[in-house]
Design a protein that fits this description.
Layout: H1 3-25, E1 48-49, E2 56-70, E3 78-81, E4 88-91, E5 93-108, E6 111-125, E7 132-135, E8 141-143, E9 148-162, E10 165-171, H2 173-176, E11 196-205, E12 210-217, H3 221-224, E13 232-241, E14 244-253, E15 258-268, E16 273-282, E17 309-318, E18 323-332, E19 337-348, E20 351-361, E21 379-390
Antiparallel strand pairs: 1-2, 2-5, 2-21, 3-4, 5-6, 6-9, 7-8, 9-10, 10-11, 11-12, 12-13, 13-14, 14-15, 15-16, 16-17, 17-18, 18-19, 19-20, 20-21
Amino acid sequence: MNIKSLLLGSAAALIAVSGARAADAVTVAEPEPAEYVKICDVYGSGYFYIPGTETCLRIGGYIRYDIGVGDPGSFDGAKSGDHEDGGEQGTFYKHARFTLKTWTGQETELGTLKTYTETRFNFANHGSYAVQDGTDGAGNPTFAPNAAGNSGVSLNFAWIQLGGLRVGKDESAFNTFIGYAGNVIQDTLVPYGDFDTNVVQYYFDAGNGFSAVVSLEEGSGVVGTIDSYVPHVVGGLKWTQGWGAITGVVAYDSNYEEVAGKVRLDVNVNDAISLFIMGGYGTDDNLSDGTWHVPAGDRGFYKQWGENWAVWGGGTYKFNEKTSFNIQASYDESKDFGLAANVAYNVVPGFTVTAEVDWAHTDHSTFGNWTGIEGSKKNAVGGLLRFQRSF
């Protein structure tokens, strides 16, 4: 063995030992299995599986900003008190809202298990009128400023549904099953029923266009809340076809033992034009409550319109995929009349700007007797500009 061979052998031995020590010092961990959020398209777009479950979840909502001007009776204007002299004056009606919605769905052996929630956060000038807060030295009324501020958080929906059975916080089936009064913003210039209530409901769908609902309801507010263990009862039938639908609902008001009903016809004239007409009738022998636009003795939780009968009608015309025109007219036996029309423009997907004009007329002699309401005007005209980003 010569010197050269000895050196080469020694170098090889050192490399081998160093490699062995390096291998002993490095430990490579096994990668953890990644759990990705999976899309759930069973219930429509926007749903995803909650990781580790078979429940599909969708989160959405909207941000809305309203600017209104005009008379308070149109629901678009506002009144306030002048800071200098306390006099009543007109001002903008402003309303900002953030609404958070959630939907869940899961298939079970008893049918689809669904939930829905909607919570609204509001910032606005409070109400649409000024409140009298005293008098000046000459005995003239003075009014408090109608200052803007946080105007409440409301839980509008929070229900659970398994198959056809629904329980929780909803809006009355007297309105949801038959449909609201058109695609205008101010659709209650002549009111067609109250909304917020706890419910126990059952929906039935025959699969051939016929559907039905039975709803036990508690109502809300002084007029609506039951005063015993007897609930309000709402029942409805609907027949839906490609041309439109025919719907009827009947409600029993357990507080006053009165009955109200509505029937509705929806017609899809073509891809651009859809029309509806809805009529309501209610008994009022025992009713004893009222609001500023419906006189005392006429109002229950369901029959909100004046005297016995009322009618609503209107429609939508789609100019194109971005722009639509909506109109609604309403009238009741008390000679209240409402007219609302708007143009809605979809600026980009998810962002819509709507401009609406409203006119409300009333012949009620009691209209305006509430402090701060502008009762001298039988005709109230206003306009509203709405910006809404939905997601």
